[in-house]
From TrEMBL:
One of its GO terms (biological process) is regulation of DNA-templated transcription. InterPro entries: Protein_Veg. Coiled coil: none annotated. It comes from Bacillus solimangrovi. PANTHER family: PROTEIN VEG. It comes from the Bacteria. Pfam families: VEG. This is ABC transporter permease.
């Protein structure tokens, strides 16, 4: 698993355009689970285009630090059974 911000960015750069499951901490013991496609990566953030049928938002962005601190967990796989899971550990 990636341990630094640059490792996380490099891993995400290699998965551009792939479908993913995003689990995010929504605060107050809420976990938000969304599905979409990794659209873009920038020096400090990455953007996920969400499935329109399930979400009110078109796009969300998170920082690489969110993955490192396990506020966000990303799973890349068509069936989402954990082939590549990104979290801070």
């Amino acid at each position: 698993m990636p341990k630094t911000l640059s490792d996380i960015k490099q891993t995400l750069d290699g998965n551009l355009g792939k479908r993913l499951r995003l689990k995010a901490n929504g605060g107050r013991r809420k976990t938000i689970e969304r599905y979409g496609v990794l659209a873009e990566t920038y020096p400090s953030v990455f953007i996920v285009e969400l499935d329109q049928a399930e979400n009110a938002f078109e796009r969300v962005s998170y920082s690489y630090a969110d993955v490192l601190t396990e506020t966000v967990e990303l799973s890349f796989d068509d069936d989402f059974h954990g082939s590549i899971v990104m979290s801070g550990q």
